[in-house]
Amino acid sequence: MFENDLGVLPTRDLLEAAAECRAVASRADARVLECAQVYADRFHPAVCGVRPGRRVGDGRERAVVLGGEGCPEIAEFAVAEFGVVVGVSPGVGRQIIADGLALRHRFPRIWAQVQAGAATAWKACQIVRCCGKLDLQGAASVDRRVAPVVDTISPYRLDKIVAAAKKQADPGLAETDAAEAAADRGVFVGRGDGHGNKTIYIKAAAGGVNRYNAAIAAIAEALKTFGDTRPVQHRRAEAVGIISDPAFTQELLTQARAQAAPQTEADPAADAQGEADAILHVRAGADVAATSEATIKAADERVRSGSGTFVTADGAGVAWVDVACADGEDDLLEPSDPREPVGPMEDPWLEASGLRDLDLPVDPYDGRSPDPRTRTAEAQPMDAATLRALDARLAQIKQDAYSADPTRAGRVRGHVRPGQTEVIVHLTDKTLASGAGVVRAEGIGPLLASQLAELVGHGPYTVKPVIDLNDAVSVNAYEIPTRIRERVRLIHPVELFPYGTRETSDTIDLDHIEPYDLHGPTGQTSTTNLAPLGRFGHRVKTHARGWSVHRIDHKTLEWTTPHGFTFHVDPDGTHRIPSPGGT
C-alpha cells in the first residue's frame, strides 16, 4: 500500500489512504504488545530459573511484577534486551512489557477491543497506566465501564471517565492519591529546550506561591521603570534570574521606587496602606479583626481598586488577602492582566488558571497547545542598543547592591559576594576566536555564542582553565577521585548503555569497563576504563547472564546481548551492528 504515488489519488482516496495508514500503525502497536506478552512468558521465573523474592541489595537479578496486581512475574533483567532490540531505553521497554501484561491479565475487555481494531493501542496503554495502583477487582470494574468507549469519545473525555471509574472502583485509593497529591510539593527543574530556555516547576503552599508571584511582579514592574518595554511575561521571566540574588533584588526595587516616585512628606494613609500588605482581614458581621482604622480604610480602598483577592466562606463574610513583596510595593499585577498568569497548559505540575476548561489534546498526533503568553498594548520590541543600555544599568545596580559605601542609607554594608553558579560550556577554538557559532552548555543544551552573555547574567564571572579531555588520567586505586569523575562526565554527557537516557551527573555510577583487579596492573581507574551507567544498566552489565561489553576506541563501547545482538554506543548515540549473517 505504501508504493502508490499519493499525488495521483483523488482526494477521497487520499483520505482513505491516510485512515488506512493510521489503522496499520495501530495494528502494529498492538502486535508489539503481543510480542511483549509472549516474551514475558518466556522469562517467567519458573522458566528461566530466577528465584522469586531475591533481594537486590547486592545488585543481582530478582523476579518482579510488571503491570500491577494479577500479572505474572518476570526476570528483571529480561526487559533490558527487549528494550534495546526494539530500539528504546530499558525503561521504555519495561513499560511496554508492563502495558502488555496489564492489558492481558487485568483489562481483558479493553485488550479484546485493541485486538479487534476497535480501540487504539496507545489509548489502552494510557488507561492501564492510570489504573496501575488498583487491585485486580478495581481494574476489572474500570475495564467493564471503559472498554466500550475507548475510541468513541475524545481523549479528554476518556481521561475524565477513566478518572471517575477509578475513584468509584476504589474510593480509599482515591483518598490516598489525593493526600499524596496534597503532599507533593517541591521545586523541579526541567531540561533545556535547545534555545537557551529552561522550565522550573514550583508546587508549594498557596501563600508562599502568592508571595513569590508578587515579588516576581514587582521586579517586572521595576524593569519597566528602567525602560524595559518587552511584554510583561518576558519581564517576569527576566525577574527569575534577578530574584535569586536578594541584595540585587532589594537594590533594584529601591532604585525603581526612587525613580518612579521621588520622596515626599510622609502620608499616614500611605503608611497604613503599606501596613495592609500581606495582612488577612476576616469580617463576620460587625466584628472586624483588631486593626487600626487607617489600615482597614486603606485595605478597603485597595480591594475596591482590584488589588486584592476576595474569598467568600459559608456566607459569614468576606476574607481578603493582599500579597506584596517585603517592602510593600503597590500595583504589582498589571491592570491589563489582573489574574494570575496562566502556566503552560501541558504542565503537569501547575494548575491551569485559565478562564475556561479547555479540551486539552492527549492524542500524540494532535500537537495543538494553547498559547499561555500574554500580550499588552504597551509592549514594544527592544533594539540591540536599548537592550545593551538596560543591561548596563542593571549591572550598575547590582554593583551598587554590593557597594561598601557606608553613606548609602539602607544599602548592604560591606563587601558581600553574590551567590555563584557554575556553568560549563563546550565550544571550538573557532567559536572562541570569532565569538560566533554554536556552543553547548551543560544542563541546558546548544546555544548561540551570542547567548552566553544572557547565561552569565549581570554579575562578575570567573573563567576556569580549559580541561584537555584528550589527556588520559588515572589513579592507582579503586575509588574514583573528583578530577577523574569530572573528566569522564565531560567526555560522556550521557550514559553509555544502549539507548540510555540518563544524563551524566555527579551521582551517576562510573563502571570499570574492565573489572578492577586488586592484583592487577596500576592505573586501572582511568578515564579510558570508566563508563557512566545508570544504576539499572550497571547492574545488567555486572550481574546479567549473557551480556558483554568492551571498548572499541576511546569513544565507543560495543555491547552484546544474550541472544547475540550487537550495539555500538558512541557520542552520536546507539547503533545496531548487523550480525555476520546480514540480519
Written account of the structure:
By secondary structure, the protein is an alpha+beta fold. The protein has 19 helices and 19 strands. The chain has helices at 11-42, 45-48, 78-86, 90-105, 108-115, 121-130, 136-146, 155-169, 171-182, 206-225, 232-243, 246-260, 268-275, 293-304, 384-401, 429-434, 452-456, 482-491, 535-543, and strands at 63-65, 73-75, 186-189, 200-203, 280-284, 287-288, 309-312, 317-321, 425-426, 438-441, 445-448, 474-475, 509-512, 525-526, 530-533, 548-553, 556-560, 566-570, 573-577. The strands form seven sheets. A four-stranded antiparallel sheet has the order 6-5-8-7, with no helix packed on it. Strands 16-17-18-19 form a four-stranded antiparallel sheet, with no helix packed on it. Helix 10 packs across helix 11 and helix 10 (206-225) crosses helix 12. The protein is globular and about 75 Å long. The protein starts with 10 loop residues before the first helix and ends in a 6-residue tail after the last strand. Mean pLDDT is 74; it is low at 263-292, 302-377 and 409-418.
Would you kindly provide a brief summary of this structure?
This protein has 583 residues and is of the alpha+beta class. Helix content is 40%, strand content 13%.
